[in-house]
Design goal:
The complex is a heterodimer. Chain A has a single domain (about 45-220), classed as Muramoyl-pentapeptide Carboxypeptidase, domain 2. In chain A, the strands form 2 sheets. A 4-stranded antiparallel β-sheet of chain A has the order 4-5-7-6, sandwiched between helices. In chain A, strands 1-2-3 form a 3-stranded antiparallel β-sheet. Chain A has helices at about 5, 20-25, 45-60, 65-90, 100-115, 140-145, 155-170, 195, 200-205, 210-220; strands at about 25, 30-35, 40, 120, 130-135, 170-180, 185-195. In chain A, about 50% of the residues lie in helices and about 15% in strands. The chains are: A alpha+beta, B mainly alpha.
């Protein structure tokens, strides 16, 4: 016999913590935006993102990707800490005890509300030890130079590498294998143990596409 | 603040509101009063509304794991709470953003669509018993919309095999 009186005793029946209208609070007078916990948020205008890409290209040239990747890693480290703190406080459970689908929903909504586009996870390669992350409508890709022959979402790759390394407690590597700046419909990122994902970088240089890279990674894994 | 009332406040910046505007204003106040009383009713009768739904659901699915049933009921309770607030604010987007965008994938992953369908039918029937016609008109469309988002629109014609 289910007692509704007992069910409603629970103090909180949670919904979407990252709902944009609740999560992002702004004050016109001070010009500040903050999240629902009162932490400051920063808005990056398109023109600034474009300037970052152009400026880095001029200053460090080929190393632009590495610089952005490391920025992303640093960003991801703090992003993970805040994400865990906020989500486990709101849902009143440590992240480890949350269901996979709830965690995923939180990450997707969080990504979207922060204006980083849309994110989805493909766990189809789980058995082989890889995770494929798909993002689209990325503001980073929109601001990046187009058709350079190499994926441009280094900052996102850094964020994902750092985020999932901390989440799994393993040293993971993230390589971007498809990019909106190269005409692909989505940005695709492969995550896995560092030594296993490493060959993907060389295949990427050869100009192989995502499907070929995944096939080769899985084949290498099987042997 | 309600958008309709906000618009009227802006309109009244330099002059008195016209008779038509006053009529609109009065209409919104009337509607707000009714929404508020419906909200209070739903809040005060939460257990009364849901206990028969829970009992009937258990009867319909005697072999179902009680934890799954509890989970669906808990989500349905949350749904009615969010829907009630959306009704009070006269803002269906509130329900969409605060709950449905999050819950839809969860329901999909748990594959509880069939349970949800039954739960929605039972809840709608229960609310029809307890609310007046005009109160039903305020809350039921929101629940129907939620149902369509969560499990898809039911087929208009069912084909018997």
């Amino acid at each position: 016999m289910i007692s509704v009186a007992d069910l409603v005793k629970e103090p909180l029946i949670p919904g979407n913590y990252y709902a944009a209208d609740a999560y992002v609070q702004g004050d016109f007078e001070t010009g500040l935006i903050e999240n629902r916990k009162g932490a400051r948020l920063i808005a990056l205008p398109d023109i600034l993102l474009q300037a970052i890409y152009a400026g880095l290209d001029q200053e460090v040239g080929q190393a632009t990707g590495v610089v952005l990747f490391n920025c992303g890693r640093w960003w991801g480290k703090n992003f993970y800490r805040r994400f865990v703190e906020e989500v486990s406080e709101y849902y009143r459970r440590p992240l480890a005890e949350m269901e996979m689908v709830e965690f995923l929903q939180c990450l997707k909504e969080c990504w979207k509300t922060h204006g980083w586009g849309t994110i989805d996870l493909d766990v189809g390669f789980y058995q082989q030890g890889f995770l494929v992350v798909k993002t689209w409508d990325s503001p980073f890709a929109a601001a990046a130079p187009k058709n350079t022959g190499q994926p441009q979402c280094a900052a996102e790759a850094g964020i994902l590498e750092s985020f999932f390394s901390q989440l799994t407690g393993r040293d993971l590597q993230c390589v971007q294998t498809a990019c909106e700046t190269l005409g692909a419909a989505n940005n695709l990122f492969v995550l896995g143990l560092r030594e296993r994902v490493e060959p993907a970088k060389a295949w990427l240089q050869e100009g192989q596409d995502h499907d070929t890279i995944m096939e080769r990674l899985c084949r290498a894994q099987a042997t | 603040m309600h958008t309709e009332l906000m618009n009227l406040y802006y309109k009244a910046e330099e002059n008195y509101l016209s008779n038509v505007d006053i009529k609109v204003f009065r209409h919104h106040i009337e509607s707000l009063r009714q929404r508020l009383s419906t909200y209070e009713f739903l809040r005060d009768h939460e257990i009364e509304i849901f206990q028969p739904v829970a009992d009937a659901l258990q009867k319909q699915y005697p072999t179902q794991n009680p934890q799954t049933l509890e989970q669906v009921l808990r989500q349905a309770i949350a749904l009615l709470r969010y829907a009630a607030m959306a009704m009070l604010l006269n803002n269906p987007e509130f329900l969409q953003h605060r709950l449905l965008e999050w819950l839809t994938e969860v329901v999909n992953a748990h594959q509880t669509q069939t349970l949800w369908r039954s739960c929605h039918e039972l809840l709608s029937a229960r609310l029809k018993e307890m609310l007046t016609d005009s109160e039903q008109d305020l809350i039921l469309p929101l629940l129907d919309h939620a149902q369509a988002t969560l499990v898809g629109v039911p087929a208009v014609v069912s084909v018997q095999s």
